[in-house]
């Protein structure tokens, strides 16, 4: 495994980051199976694990904590996230100081650790000043509960704003961004990725298989696979929607290209992401051990310039086929906000 620097932190991480969203109620409900997947990933050289408080309402963090108990914890770069609702209360969510200070303690308890290597803001919060958020995160860094901080699914303008506020206020800065990036979701190539490069930030891309679309399971004429994600996120998977029909067309063409090149589509999709010079690591999110094994080999794949050019002919650089795959919509473009 060839390790990479996470931005300018001096910390080296594997080009594959093990995502744990599918461990627990949302995916694999067997804790023993999930722990086994984590241990296999570590044995394969992956030293980077990403989770979030909201994944199965804390259950994913508990599974990760169980898997890393003991000596394994010291060798792992452990990342988690905060923002999404964790209860019915109006203040059990968001990016406020009050919630950050409360919820970090819950994450530390579930993860069975004294510190979090990378604590990330899962989504922007238009109702919260970034100064408030960075101030709280900086205090956690000073307390030793958090080593580094990052953002996830922030648009380029807010990435720049956060960097500016951190510099002007003398606060801890985001050292990395976690954007959606795949062969079907290439919008970040236009602004987010070059912005991260200019600010010396690492990039940990989520959903390199586009939520399973690039796994080979979605093909024309075949029934869609059974998945808990289909029920939770119908906009991304409902085949009656024109955008998802376009995704089927693109996946078929990419699959044919992968076959011609003698590369599994899964490997082609992941290798494409980690080849980008701005990307530090791609987050893989297996639900089963077989899915993990099918993805690990992507780090050995070399994509030629000719193959990259042919990919660009199928999905143009900077193109996102379906807005529902991005994970965040600008509130300024919501119907109510557009009314004048």
Overview of the molecule:
The protein has 340 residues and is an alpha/beta fold. The chain has a single domain, classed as NADP-dependent oxidoreductase domain (TIM Barrel, Alpha-Beta Barrel), CATH 3.20.20. It contains 13 helices and 10 strands. The strands form 2 sheets. The protein has an 8-stranded parallel β-barrel with strand order 3-4-5-6-7-8-9-10, surrounded by 7 helices. Strand 7, helix 5 and strand 8 form a beta-alpha-beta unit. Helix 2 packs across helix 3. The longest helix is centred in the last third of the chain and has 20 residues. The radius of gyration is 19 Å and the shape is globular. The protein starts with a strand and ends with a helix. The mean pLDDT is 94.
Could you name the ranges where pLDDT drops below 50 across 5 or more consecutive residues?
Answer: none
Overall geometry comes to globular
How many strand elements?
A: 10
Assign a percent range to the helix content.
25-40%
Spatial strand sequence of the major β-sheet: 3-4-5-6-7-8-9-10
Strand content: 5-15%
CATH class label: Alpha Beta
Give the domain tally. 1
Q: Which structural class do you get from the secondary structure elements? A: alpha/beta
Mean pLDDT: 94
Order of helices and strands: EEEHEHEHEHEHEHEHHHHEHHH
CATH topology: TIM Barrel
How far apart the termini lie comes to: 54 Å
Radius of gyration: 19 Å
**CATH homologous superfamily annotation:** NADP-dependent oxidoreductase domain
């Amino acid at each position: 495994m060839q390790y990479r620097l996470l931005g300018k932190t001096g910390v080296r991480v594997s080009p594959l980051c093990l995502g744990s969203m599918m461990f627990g109620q949302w995916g694999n409900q067997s804790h023993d199976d999930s722990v086994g997947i984590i241990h296999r990933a570590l044995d394969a050289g992956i030293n980077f694990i990403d989770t979030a408080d909201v994944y199965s309402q804390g259950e994913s963090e508990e599974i990760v904590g169980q898997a890393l108990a003991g000596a394994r914890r010291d060798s792992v770069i452990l990342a988690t996230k905060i923002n999404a609702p964790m209860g019915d209360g109006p203040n059990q969510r968001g990016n406020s100081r009050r919630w950050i200070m409360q919820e970090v303690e819950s994450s530390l308890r579930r993860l069975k650790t004294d510190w979090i290597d990378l604590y990330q803001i899962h989504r922007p919060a238009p109702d919260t000043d970034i100064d408030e958020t960075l101030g709280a995160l900086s205090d956690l860094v000073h307390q030793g509960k958090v080593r580094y901080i990052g953002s996830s699914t922030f648009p380029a303008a807010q990435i720049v704003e956060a960097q500016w506020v951190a510099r002007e206020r003398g606060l801890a800065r985001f050292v990395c961004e976690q954007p959606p990036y795949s062969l079907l979701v290439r919008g970040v190539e236009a602004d987010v990725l070059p912005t991260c490069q200019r600010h010396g930030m690492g990039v940990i891309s989520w959903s390199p298989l586009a939520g399973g679309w690039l796994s080979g399971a979605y093909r024309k004429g075949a029934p869609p696979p059974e998945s808990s994600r289909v029920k939770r996120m119908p906009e991304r998977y409902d085949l009656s929607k024109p955008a998802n029909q376009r995704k089927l067309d693109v996946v078929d063409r990419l699959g044919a290209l992968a076959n011609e090149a003698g590369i599994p589509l899964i490997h082609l999709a992941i290798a494409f992401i980690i080849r980008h010079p701005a990307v530090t690591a791609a987050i893989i999110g297996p639900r089963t051990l077989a899915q993990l094994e099918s993805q690990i080999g992507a780090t050995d794949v070399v994509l030629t310039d000719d193959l990259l050019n042919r990919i660009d002919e199928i999905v143009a650089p900077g193109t996102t086929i379906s807005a529902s795959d991005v994970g965040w919509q600008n509130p300024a473009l919501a119907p109510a906000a557009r009314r004048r």
